[in-house]
Amino acid sequence: MPELLNSRVEDCFNLAEAFFKRPFKRPVVSFKLRGQKAGVAHLHENLLRFNPQLYRENRDDFLKQTVAHEVAHLIAHQLFGDRIAAHGEEWQLIMRGVYELPPNRCHTYDIKRRSVTRYIYRCPCPDSDFPFTAQRHGLVNKGRRYLCRKCRNTLLFTGQTRIE
Fold first, then answer.
1. CB 156 within 8 Å of CB 121
2. pLDDT exceeds 90 at position 145
3. What is the DSSP letter of 64?
4. What CATH number does residue 62 fall under?
5. Are residues 25 and 73 in the same domain?
6. Does one domain contain both 79 and 34?
7. Which one from 17, 70, 89, 164 is the annotated catalytic residue?
8. Angstrom distance (rounded) from CA 101 to CA 103
9. Mean pLDDT, the chain, integer
């Protein structure tokens, strides 16, 4: 799986080097990304992370659009520095001018949402359900307290959970 994607990353860098007539530092490429994002560019680490599940399910568009999208972030950062908008005109210039692709901010890949458990907390206020994530519920179990913004009472676990 990584060979095709790594090859596409290299192709994108070669296109940018030919367009801008200068070399660009190559990134580390990782397949350790899960969830809804198809790819992430870590500008200061010069790191690209890609979602292997979305890559498998959308290979052609992923190679064409997503890889170019993330490489364009690194190229824009190397050319223009920190003070540019993530999907601003500099990034859009690279997407259109270098890769001849639409500067789409987000992918449209079908995401299979997993169900999550919410832990229900309450305070004395009427209709006060506070669904906590497992992580936040774990912090409460370790002693962290959360307060209601209205009544300032500590939120207490009801013993109830719900699946979303």
1. yes
2. yes
3. I
4. 3.30.2010.10
5. yes
6. yes
7. 70
8. 6
9. 95
CA distances from residue 123 to 129, 130, 157, 164 in whole angstroms, order as listed: 8, 9, 9, 22
- Laid out side by side, the sheet with 117-122 consists of 130-132, 117-122, 156-163
- The confidence band for 111, taking pLDDT boundaries of 50, 70 and 90, is confident
Q: Which two tokens stand for residue 124?
A: 């004395």
Going through 5-155 in order, the beta strands assigned E by DSSP cover 28-30, 39-42, 47-50, 117-122, 130-132
Task: Determine contact, residues 98/69, Cβ cutoff 8 Å.
Answer: no
| 70 classed as catalytic | yes
The answer on 85 and 151 residing in a single domain is no
Query: Would you state the structure tokens that stand for residue 138, as one six-digit string?
Result: 């774990």
- How far separated are the first and last CA of the chain, in Å rounded? 33
Only one residue has tokens 């200061």, namely 44
Per the CB < 8 A criterion, the answer to whether 13 and 79 are in contact is: no
Number of domains in the chain: 2
- 42 Rama sector, left if φ>0, alpha if ψ -120 to 50, beta otherwise: beta
Structural domain harbouring 49: 2-98
